[in-house]
Amino acid sequence: PVALKHGAHRVGKRTDADMAKWRSYGLGQFIHWGLYSILEGKYNGKYYNGAAEWIRSWKEVPHAEYDSLYKQFNPENFNPTQWAKMAKQMGVKYVTFTTKHHDGFCLWPSQYTQYTVANSPYKKDIVKQVVDAYTKEGIDVYLYFSVMDWSHPDWRTDLKTKEDSVAFDRFKLFTKNQLTELLKMYPQTKGLWFDGTWDTSWKKSGAFSDSLEQHLKSLIPGLIIGSRLRADEFGNRHNDANGVLMGDYEQGWERKIPKTYADVHGNDWDCVMTIPENGWGYAEKWLGHWKTSYECIEMTTQCVSLGGNFVLNFGPKADGTFRPEEITVAKEMGDWMKVNNAAIYDCEYANCEKQDWGYFTKKQNDDKIYMVVFNVPINGSLKVKLPKNTSIGKASLLQAPSTVLSTEQLDYNASYIQLPKGMKPTSPFVIVIDTKQQSQVETEQKAKT
Ligand SMILES: Cc1ccc([C@@H]2N[C@@H](C)[C@@H](O)[C@H]2O)cc1
Prior knowledge:
Layout: H1 17-24, E1 27-31, H2 36-39, E2 42-43, E3 46-47, H3 63-67, H4 80-90, E4 94-100, H5 126-136, E5 140-146, H6 162-185, E6 191-195, H7 200-203, H8 206-219, E7 224-225, E8 250-254, E9 269-273, H9 293-305, E10 309-314, H10 324-340, E11 347-348, E12 358-363, E13 369-373, E14 381-385, E15 390-397, E16 400-404, E17 406-411, E18 414-418, E19 429-437, H11 438-448
Parallel strand pairs: 1-4, 1-10, 4-5, 5-6, 6-7, 8-9, 9-10
Antiparallel strand pairs: 2-3, 11-12, 12-13, 13-19, 14-18, 15-16, 15-19, 17-18
The structure holds the ligand Cc1ccc([C@@H]2N[C@@H](C)[C@@H](O)[C@H]2O)cc1.
């Protein structure tokens, strides 16, 4: 292995209680809200077909005009309690909220820049209201922070000259100061979700990113930071020069889901997902297909079945209200989660061979295995291949535990579970398998002879 000073300082998953809590979430909410929400993905009557929160980079939009949008930011209908109650009903266990996106506008009254909500007509601290309201609903709060900051004169994409390095040193101090004030002002924060760290200037700042992470973790013990913050001293991101993940979980799954367990390389990970095909900030027009609650339920299950968390994004309008499509997804997902959340919360990869009918999840620290069924085979027989030395003790319906399903052993580790005749499922449902370990089976067989 390569000797590294600023590579990963831990191999394998974190084993502490704070990370175990993070690993138990299953489902989270992302919220992107900021000045871009005012433009709604259009300008001068023309629609921007890029991501709405990137509209400042659209050639049609004069930077000076974008940068003066803060003078009209005044979300009278913003009701953080309503936001948090909608999230609670949806069944999310944590929220990741944009404190500062790439445009540099701060939704908290930062003392290190004038470009904040304190200098908007709205004036009040939005981050504080979100942190307090979600915490009150029992939803853990994580803060999104973009290192790249288009509003700051000392931001650089690369360090080509001495002047670049002097400026970027000022920028790095500014970044450290803002992150320090965020954690001091909102100590309930459970973790930070970094973005905007792909530029060469940051890849050349590996040592700084390492000391920054250690500094932040000293402010809030147990703080959870993913793999998008750090670079090692050779400019590697996510995995260091030895291929070891730098960060508490893998943050590479943006708008994509791993295919197999092998793809996650034994790391904790989250998948952050948009309801439309792309775009995180509010856009008046969603181009193409947007996901139904059914698809979001399936993606949640798919992520949990591979040991990750699914974090679904909502983009409120500039006035703080949500669009009908997002309200519907939150409601319908919540209705499903109310009945089936046992297969999502506190669950992990079950180490069972994937079958066409759907996904396996396994209860952490327990032998229960769940089958979340999306595709019922015509013959009603669901094939199950459990890990070696594990067999089916009892199979029943999660929503009707007294309905025990008949099982037929096919060979040494495959079985069929037969759905009750006439069962006509109209939404994904869950079968609970109480498993038996082989040693237990042998004991029973001996008892019979
Ligand atoms: C190429 C690219 C850069 C940044 C992004 C940001 N990451 C997401 C979590 C959003 O914040 C998006 O603006 C998306 C694509």
